[in-house]
């Protein structure tokens, strides 16, 4: 199993809604990531969890709240978003068991959740 | 600093044409280099990678060689197909503890029959 599964695939939400994006991997990877990708742009890193602990927050607004309930799951809770937050949200994972998470470890990406804020 | 520069797109080629997408990088330390591909409406897929100088990554007819002397990792394919139409991202990872990939801006390839 080399998949990173994201749900839902598409999400439309109002600015007052609360929703969550989910990401799951069963490769035993020790690092998980959230990226945001706007149209015709490369992915931008938002958060990194390493061994289930938040290790990087790239100055993301508090209306985005990540959570890592266990080593296989990563959530992104959304609240009071703005229309400019509409984007493709990508989850990724890397670092096999026993492998040092570092320069040689490739990241596996999910198919993304396309979020539209209205 | 660390950065990746890709050739500007979009690139339009006829089927069976030769493809080159240029990628150069700036990095502290000794990076690994990657090419990712993103098909329309999908996430990123790892296409190939190289972890040290002179390594050649290859997959699905695509190749790229890690050239330390020119700090380059150009993507090539001898004969493209319509199904290769996608956006291609060059990326590097460094051993910095940051657990991060640095992406280029992406190059959109369209292959016409």
What does this structure look like?
The complex is a heterodimer of chains A (118) and B (113). The model of chain A has no long low-confidence stretch (mean pLDDT 90). Chain A has strands at 4-7, 10-13, 18-25, 31-37, 44-50, 53-57, 64-70, 73-79, 87-94, 108-109, 113-117. Chain A is mainly β and 118 residues long. Chain A is 0% helix and 54% strand. Chain A has no helices and eleven strands. In chain A, a hairpin with a 2-residue loop joins strand 5 (44-50) and strand 6. The model of chain B has no long low-confidence stretch (mean pLDDT 92). With 113 residues, chain B is an all-beta fold. In chain B, strand 10 and strand 11 form a beta hairpin. Chain B has strands spanning 3-6, 11-14, 19-21, 23-26, 32-38, 44-50, 56-59, 62-65, 75-77, 86-93, 101-103, 107-112. At the A-B interface, strand 5, strand 9 and strand 10 of A face strand 5 and strand 6 of B.
Furnish the topology, listing elements before pairings:
The complex is a heterodimer of chains A (118) and B (113).
Chain A: E1 4-7, E2 10-13, E3 18-25, E4 31-37, E5 44-50, E6 53-57, E7 64-70, E8 73-79, E9 87-94, E10 108-109, E11 113-117
Parallel strand pairs in A: 2-11
Antiparallel strand pairs in A: 1-3, 3-8, 4-5, 4-9, 5-6, 7-8, 9-10, 9-11
Chain B: E1 3-6, E2 11-14, E3 19-21, E4 23-26, E5 32-38, E6 44-50, E7 56-59, E8 62-65, E9 75-77, E10 86-93, E11 101-103, E12 107-112
Parallel strand pairs in B: 2-12
Antiparallel strand pairs in B: 1-4, 3-9, 5-6, 5-10, 7-8, 8-9, 10-11, 10-12
């Amino acid at each position: 199993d080399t998949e990173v599964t994201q749900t839902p695939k598409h999400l439309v939400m109002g600015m007052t809604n609360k929703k969550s994006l989910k990401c799951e991997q069963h490769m035993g990877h020790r690092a998980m990531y959230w990226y945001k990708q706007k149209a015709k742009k490369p992915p931008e890193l938002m958060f990194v969890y390493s061994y289930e602990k938040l290790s990087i927050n790239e100055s993301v607004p508090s209306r985005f709240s990540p959570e890592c309930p266990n080593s296989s799951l990563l959530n992104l809770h959304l609240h009071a978003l703005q229309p400019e937050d509409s984007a493709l949200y990508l989850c990724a994972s890397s670092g096999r068991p026993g492998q040092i998470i570092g320069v040689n470890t490739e990241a596996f990406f999910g198919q993304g959740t396309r979020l539209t804020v209205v | 600093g660390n950065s990746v520069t890709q050739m500007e797109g979009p690139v339009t080629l006829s089927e069976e044409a030769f493809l080159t997408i240029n990628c150069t990088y700036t990095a502290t330390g000794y990076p690994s280099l990657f090419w990712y591909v993103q098909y329309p409406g999908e996430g990123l897929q790892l296409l190939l990678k190289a972890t040290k100088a002179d390594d050649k990554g290859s997959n699905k007819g695509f190749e790229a060689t890690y050239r330390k002397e020119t700090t380059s990792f150009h993507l090539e394919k001898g004969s493209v197909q319509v199904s290769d139409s996608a956006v291609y991202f060059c990326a590097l990872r460094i051993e910095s503890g940051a657990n991060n990939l640095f992406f280029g801006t992406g190059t959109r390839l369209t292959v016409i029959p």
